[in-house]
Structures are given as C-alpha cells and as structure tokens.
Amino acid sequence: MAPTFDLIGLVVTDMAASLSFYRRLGLDIPPSADTEPHVEVTLPGGLRLAWDTESTVRALDPSWTPMEGATRMSLAFRCEAPEEVDRVYADLVEAGYEGHLPPWDAFWGQRYAVVHDPDGNGVDLFAALPGD
To answer: Kind of pairing, strands 98-105 and 110-116?
Structure first.
C-alpha cells in the first residue's frame, strides 16, 4: 500500500501573525491557537494544514535553520469569481500583507494574484474567467 498524502506543514516565525493571515482567507482557526506551538486544521476533503513555530521545529531537529532566499512552495486558494480575487487581494494588501503580483487575467483562463504570508510564502488566489 502506498503512503497517503495527509498534511501540509508550514514553519512560522510568529504563530499569531500567520494564523491571522490564514483566517482572512477563510480558514476556521480558533483565536486560542495563536499561542500554541503547533496548530492544524482539516480542510475540505480531509487534507490537513499545519503550522509549527520555529522553536517547535528546532526542538525536533536541533540542526534546522530557516531557508535563505526565495521560498519553494506556495498555497493556492480558489475564489468563486474573478471579482473575489480582486477583493481578497485588496483586503490582504490593505491589512498590511505583501502583495507580490496584483490580480491579472492569465492566459490559461483564470484571474490570478499572489500575496505573501507573514513568512514570505506565496499564496495564490485564482478564479476561472467567464467563458472558461
């Protein structure tokens, strides 16, 4: 039997800041989680998304160090309509998060944008364009 993909884990510098960002994207994370060293939520379909503080990761792997330079992963959130991509992007940027690529109509038929979470991870926002 093959292993089952079950969890995406993010290492965070500031748990409360990271969870605040992902709450704005609609994830149901209780406020009490802001002070926890490990937090996880189950997404629709059963996949889990988890956050661990840097100190938690170092407790498990004392040799761990944060990656330098650009991140190598991103998360993508599907929006219902192109207008929602614009609205969510604007909301996040107005809240102080770094907008990386403002919304645009991509050649593959989606309205697309990229914002960075508090740890610099790319978070894509997308929706199908009308007629696609």
So the answer is: antiparallel
